[in-house]
Amino acid sequence: MSDIVVPKKNYLVAQSNDLIDARYPTPLTLNEKKIILMMISLIQPNDEEFKTYTLPVKYYTRLLGLDEKTEPYGYLRKLMKNLMQRVLEIPTKEGWLLTHWVSNCELLRKKGEISFTFDPKLKPYLLQLKREYTQYQLANVLPLTSVYSISIYELLKKWEKVGQIAFDIDDFRISIGATKPTYKKYAQLNSKILEPSKNEISEKTDISYSVETIKRGNKVERLVFTIHKSSKKKLSKKSSTNGE
After folding, report:
1. Which of 34, 74, 145, 243 is the most buried (most CB within 10 A)?
2. What's the rounded mean pLDDT across residues 130-139?
């Protein structure tokens, strides 16, 4: 049986830290990323198996901010088809697990609904999470307008309790999917991703951050992020629990 559950803004996105560290040969688009996080928010802490979830098409159109002139079924069919083809590479103790987010999706045009199920390989990373996981309110990511902002937000939420985290700059670029050659130049990475994301995350989420660069000669080699509670948005007690 399918469960029709429409996510609310205070729903939690909870996922294993290994899933946050997953890499994508083909980076996700902003709407693909938001759809995934919305789907994750439907999972309940006591779920032992994945369910088949069914959502109204109108919820997707609101979530994605589709124009009224857009034909939603054609757009969503293409989006879900692309999403099902996206490979994610999850780090494991033995190496890497290569899998997909969604195992199947059904567009029920007459009912105005979409059904989907997660790939079974994702069970250890989304179900019955007890340790080494991160969670936050769905409302923190829905307003973000860049997939890089969402990726940076998730990385920093993972380390929020620690308060600071350093990344080798090349590893950071890979982690957030900034793989275009132009982003190998720090000036471009900073002006196109770091500064806009810092401003957006501070304005729209429950955290803010500052970045310090560590150089060797004239080349930036590491980024040190200091994470702060945002004073612009009241944080729910449930939204920053980390299982580490």
Report:
1. 34
2. 93
